[in-house]
Model the fold of this input.
Amino acid sequence: MTAWWRIHQGVVIALYFIACGLTWQIKEWQPGSAGAVFFAVSIIATIAGIFRGHLLFAERVNSSRFAAELQRAAPVLFVADLALAAALGIDGLLLAGIRPVASVLTVALGVGIALARLLVEPATTTASFNK
Done:
């Protein structure tokens, strides 16, 4: 069952990269406040990606400490993922008037990250480690 948890972590890390690339492109289309959103998304995604990478490492290499590491990382990832989702929502709204398709996709990415954190991740973590 841990394979699903590992896949979830890898997919979310990939979504962080996509979010950074997308917000960079929006910054190019909409100079101004979109630059601040790009900066925030990049910092948040980096921090959360490091934490998720650490959890993947700890689960594989130091399984005796994994539960403690997961508990320690959970609040950081919760705040980071929801902040990232909010920033993507803001960026999507900034783009709505000039690029509606990109706007919808940006907001949808934010909603997807929030739902993954609030619904999918707790389910995969529980199924994988709380048997």
Observations:
- The mean pLDDT is 93.
- Residues 2-126 form one domain.
